[in-house]
Amino acid sequence: MNASPQTAIHIQSLTSLEDFESCVVLQLEVWRYSDADIVPRRVFVVAQRIGGQVLGAFDGEILVGFAMSLPGYRDGKSYLHSYMLAVLPQYRNAGIGRRLKLAQRDDAIARGFDLMEWTFDPLEIKNSHLNISRLGTIVRRYHPDFYGVSSSPLQGGLPTDRLYAEWWLRSRHVADLLRGEPQPQQIVERITVPHTIYQWKQDAQQRNLARTLQSNNRTALEAAFQRGLAVVGYERDPQGNGTFLLGPWKNTVEI
Ligand SMILES: CC(C)(COP(=O)(O)OP(=O)(O)OC[C@H]1O[C@@H](n2cnc3c(N)ncnc32)[C@H](O)[C@@H]1OP(=O)(O)O)[C@@H](O)C(=O)NCCC(=O)NCCS
Q1: Measured in angstroms, how far is the CA atom of residue 89 from the centroid of ligand 1?
Q2: Number of domains in the chain
Q3: What ranges make up the beta strands (E) of the chain?
Q4: Which H or E element spans position 25?
């Protein structure tokens, strides 16, 4: 990593049009979207103005990462839907993504929210690890082809299947995990994503392997959720394979 020492990275709320423009530029560098998929500056403006969040991570004056969320409403309750999290490639794996999420959590709690959600690709082992093992989200919902076709090469031409991460911000589950003392969970099912998935997605010759895995894991995850199970943990092995750990979940998830 070429980044300055982590202590030099500071995180702050973004409010200016220039900063929102920098988010758009960073977004393009990270996802390489076509014009049709790009989230324009005006959406960042709206997010910041209507009770969402736009947070930036800076190395000096340079924006090296951001998190953006929008306010949501379901079943009579407000929550935050975190729509984008991005860190420049040369600054990754130094804890900046996690710090942006923790700053989102602090801000959300200060403003009275109990829940933040976001969607993520179940084939992304790194993101699954960050979301489930490092932040303490749980997962009980699967949405096939959430966005429809995506122009991002990260998607590798596959359907944009997404899991919903639920981050119960004040829950004991999250607080214990963030303190480094996660509660033991009962695990009754495991669903694995091999580390070769990244190569399969990027290589046209092997893309069918990725499609088959996505389809098999979709079936397995949807069936498990229907039986009332939730993703309550995630494991990585030394080869880099990732495994969803599923178990029963108490109804009072937010406690
Ligand atoms: C997802 C993203 C924001 C994470 O940012 P980051 O600053 O690298 O994240 P962190 O350093 O806080 O955490 C990364 C974790 O993944 C781990 N990791 C890195 N590569 C991994 C891999 N191939 N498999 C599994 N885990 C991996 C790191 O070790 C770290 O875990 P640790 O804290 O237990 O050591 C960044 O990778 C990114 O911009 N990706 C592209 C856009 C994207 O996918 N956004 C999220 C979905 S909207």
Answers
A1: 10
A2: 1
A3: 9-13, 53-59, 62-74, 77-87, 115-120, 138-143, 162-168, 189-193, 229-236, 242-248
A4: helix 17-31
pLDDT in tens, 90-147: 999 999 999 999 999 999 999 999 999 999 999 999 999 999 999 999 999 999 999 9
In a domain, residue 222? The reply is no
Residues contacting 114, CB < 8 A, separation 6+: 77, 79, 168, 169, 170, 254
Please, are residues 164 and 72 in contact by the beta-carbon 8 Å criterion?
Answer: no
Is the distance from the beta carbon of residue 84 to the nearest atom of ligand 1 less than 6 Å? yes
Residue nearest to atom 18 of ligand 1 (CA): 126
CATH at 113: 3.40.630.30
Instruction: Indicate if ligand 1 lies below 6 Å from the C-beta of 127.
Output: yes
Q: Is residue 91 part of a domain?
A: yes
Single-letter amino acid, residue 97: G
